Amino acid sequence: LSTLVDRVAIGLLRELWGRRLGVPEPRLAAIVTSNPVALDAYLRGESQLRAAAWDSAVASFSRAVDADSTFALAQLRLAEAFGWRGLMGTDAARRALATARRYASRLPPRERLMLTVRELHEATSFDAVEASNQLVARYPGDPEARYMQADIAFHASDALGLSARVRTVALFDTAVALDSTSARVLVHPLAMALDYGDRERFQHYSALAVARERPDRRAARRAEFDTIGGLRFAAPAEAARGFESLIRSGRLNGARVMPLLHATSSAVLGAEEPAPELLRRIYEVAHTAYGADPLVGTTIKTYYACLLVGLGRMDEARQRFPTQWSPNCIIEPIVWRYAPRGWRESVQEALSLGREPTGARPDRRDVQYRLALLHLAAGDLAAARTLLADVTTPRVGEDSMPAMLGSAIDAARGWARLIEGDSAAALTAMDRAIDAMGYNGRGVYHLVPLRLRRIQMLMADPRRRREAVDLLAGLIRPTDRVAAWRYLELARGHALEGDTARATAARRKFDALWQGADPLVQQAARRVRTDGAR
Questions:
Q1: pTM value?
Q2: Percent of the chain clearing pLDDT 70 (strictly above)
Q3: What are the contacts of 37-42 at 24+ separation with CB within 8 A?
């Protein structure tokens, strides 16, 4: 009798607390804990996750699993909350998933399949894309299944090309239509609408996000969306003036500067006729006002240096090394072969000093790996192989080799095979390593120069040229500060495909961004013929 009473009581609490906190009924069916403390904390965490309150959700789910460590669903949700807080793929998230797996027999089939999908996603495995598709095939009308599919597609799209990005937009439309009351579901589609200049979707999603807010917060939230949307969807000159006005008003704290800078630079870069001088002015204004700010100053300076590289203004960018540098954006000119004389030496010095803009010293192996990429991009095979051997040789006191870095090194060795003249073996090795690396986080950051080099290889193969063009187009976005030369390569790819209209449009973008490039860098661009040949 006491067991029956306990079950009825927990069932009532599940129903009443869930409704009070706004947790959808379908999720309650999987809650099998008999601990009221764990149940209360879980439901609060579920509500906070839906409200996009990541820190609060982590705290609540942590209390739930502290009260009942066998609570598999709470462990699963804790891993997701960690991911949203910017810690995707970390030990904390994986420990939560490992515990959920240990008690997975207590979960219904739907939640067990979701656990499998989440495990693959935390590992940033491309298999997560197919697993999420299988989840939706089994539960086509399930809002949570649709959300997981769209979320994974969003994270994977940067590595899968433009066609994957277009598919992701459609997947989020479906997910939002099924559950527009969750702020969590709106986060990524709002970001995509801003990035790619989709005014209609931004207005639709932002209206849903405002409706999701507490009544006393709605006016402020609407004003935030109006400000950022007003910048993003304005004409370039108007966006720049609006940004300057906001900065000079003195009413912005450091945390609000970067989203506004992001929106304004997207308006300028994403315009039909981008205006590089306006971009420089925007960054100068931000740098003057917030360059000394410990929260955002370093980020603004680093972004500005990468912007100068992307605009071909290499002499000015070089003056910012090594205090402000981003390894990928300073290696990219060497990959595309427009770096002027002395650039590689300046980059090598910056990398060898091994100091990030934050002042922290990065891992020795990361520095050696990037130096190896630098030598590979320059065709110096012996130096690159010496460095790669050094990276893989353990030293006393060092942790074991991170799996992602190991895969990056395998891809770099594939690049070395290309320099030796074995392009088939090189591409096979790079394909395998990039697939093992996955699609998100530090792995993607490690692989940017290698992904660009691989695109060059695919572009030369008529059988895989469509794939190369799709991948390159997916890497270009209005927020990309090193996009100019990518537009030129995209023009080559379209020309080789015989798509004259798209080739002309991409070349026009490049010419507009490149008009103020250094004379020697301009010469490199003139060596690339408009018919796609080099």
A1: 0.88
A2: 89
A3: 37/63, 37/64, 37/67, 37/68, 38/63, 38/64, 38/65, 38/67, 38/68, 38/71, 38/74, 39/10, 39/13, 39/14, 39/64, 40/13, 41/67, 41/74, 42/71, 42/73, 42/74, 42/77
